[in-house]
Amino acid sequence: MSSIPSIQSGGSLMLSWQVKDRHVLVVGGGSIGLSRVNHLLEADAKVTVISEKMDPVIEKYGELEMMERNETRKFCFDDLQMYETSNRDELAQLDLTEPENVQLVEDFDRNQRFALVLVCINDHELAKKIYYRCKQLGLNVNLADKPDLCDFFFGSVYRKGSLQIMISTNGRSPRLCNRLKNFKIKPMFDGLDVNTAVENLSYMRNQLRQTIHPGDNPKTIEERMEWNKQVTDFYSIEDWCEMEKNDVDQIVSHYPDLPSLM
Predict the structure, then answer these.
(1) 143 in a domain, yes or no?
(2) 159 vs 189: CA distance, rounded Å
């Protein structure tokens, strides 16, 4: 019997949540709300902020048409469905063997409902009520500084182009995450041209899929993945950071054989 991995419980499921062109609601426009908005804009979300007081930077984002909507007013519970035009009960009864019905559900999910609700207000009673209303509506929600009332946490993120690294303590010490990012991870990567490495490896994968060994059958996919894995590991990270496109073309030309060191 093969050995099984050691499972350490108590962690979070670390995901890269895709919110591109999805509606996200931020309740509260202070400093924490601004931090959330910055993360969301970098993820290309369609951001709506509702707050009685709005940080000037969020207001500026609105002026620059970077936001879906900014509303300086009190929150009301209808805001959680402010973009919904379809009837939820009717959608739940649709026959999904019909393509037009699938399109209706897809439109509701992508263009009407909030993908995420982020609550960043000091009124803890109201925040708690928003949380449970989100649960009734099936919405994923995060309450700032209330880890017990969160479907997900925000970690400290180091980003360099397409590379994103998130550190999390599962809500126990966000400040430690920030220090680890600035004093450990950032110095480690700042000396590397990681963007070039990412572009080179992405280009190699695309060449394999589209030109060198196309196909969607399981055997072809497995062959591509295995070769890609071996070649990626064959060169050092520094090598991938320094290569040019013609170097990658030369490597791919050896497929299915492994190239020799350059």
Answers:
(1) yes
(2) 10
